[in-house]
Amino acid sequence: MSRADSSPSRRAFIGATGAVAAAGLTVGCDSPAPKPDRHPSPASPTQVSPTGRHQAGITLPQPAQPNLLAVVADLGDAVAVGPLLAELGQAVRTLTAGTDPRLLGLAPGDLTVTIGVGPRLVRMADPALPGAADLPRFSREQIAPQARGGDLLIQICAGDPLLLPVVAAALVQQAGHRIRERWRQSARRGPNVAVHKDISAPRNLLGFIDGIVGPRTAAEHRRDLWLAGPDPVAGGTIAVVRRMELDLPRFAALSVADQEAVFGRRRATGVPLSGGTAAGDPNLGAKTPDGRYLVPADAHIRRANPNVVGVGLMLRRSYSTDEPPPGLLFISFQNDIRTFTHTLARMDDSDALLRFTTTTASATFLILPGFDQHHPLGAQMFH
User: Fold this and answer.
1) What is the DSSP annotation of 243-283?
2) 37: Cβ–Cβ under 8 A, 6 or more apart, which residues?
3) 349 vs 246, 273, 297, 299, 338, CA distance in Å?
4) Which of 87, 188, 190, 237 has a Cα-to-Cα distance from 154 of 20 to 30 A?
5) Is this model's pTM higher than 0.85 or not?
């Protein structure tokens, strides 16, 4: 299901849901009579409201759900964008409320759906709006034409992996012939690791804690995450979606010390090689007695450091993929696309981590502001 070029068939959909079910991946299912020596089953996750100033699935819930499916699609030339978005928003409301029969009896739990529009649609509304610029091309990309760009992003997150293909099928059915799917990718996050009293982050496939740095306070969200205006986009944000393959065998062949030099952090704890705490800023000027930088010049945390790049913080929700070859689905949210492009341009120069990655899909989207029953999704942009 990771590289579909068109809408999945009924047979593919049933096969996907059946494969997940066969794997026994269930979340929050209570046993009627648990044995005393077993841990009690977890309670059903708390429902996340889809309405409000911001769409769910970005800062809420915390921590992020362990399972994600991203669907990227195009719209037909004659499609009325406003009515389509309004329909999708209404479907999101019924799906997350558990009242949509297309859920097939599954409990929605902490289901969130986040919807964004690509640069072509933003330019149709107003070329001066944030989100109107396409992503530039970077090195280490092997991207097929159908995996670059796109008009519509549907990000589905949930604690229960069974929900992902079911909800995607419902939303694709809602859109009908008006959209043409480009690609989709399912992925998951590992268990969260506490790095500070109120900060946790998951490990990635390379064994390192991923996503330690990012906007966390309300002030940082206002400064670096949410768009403040103009009105049609206020409360939205800019997303970058990149799918990468990882060269796990070559990375695993390195010694632990060499792996840590690639990231600039300790693998076990996430603490910078310059010392301190995992959540603290690295001391990029710290040197050994013989004059070598403790954090190497090409280490990832040096090359991507926002203070060095001169940009704001990006909120990252990165997920791992395991279909061959294994990889990473990188999603970042920021209120200025230059936060991402300037960072990656500096990483492109000489970031040791990029030697183990190949990007196979890339797109950017304006994540629309929040909505409710009186203010349909996308109504301010597409009348």
Assistant:
1) EEEE-HHHHHTS-HHHHHHHHTB-TTT--BTT-S-TTSPP-
2) none
3) 19, 21, 11, 12, 16
4) 190
5) yes
